[in-house]
Design goal:
single chain; about 30 residues; mainly alpha
């Protein structure tokens, strides 16, 4: 389980919702 994996999982959940897509983008900034 790499740090990138964690972000990937979050992105998946966000993608499913489609409403919290902005959250995923913000996470990328932290990367």
């Amino acid at each position: 389980f790499e740090e990138m994996n964690w972000g990937d999982i979050a992105a998946y959940s966000i993608n499913h919702d489609g409403h919290i897509l902005a959250f995923a983008e913000r996470a990328d900034d932290t990367d």
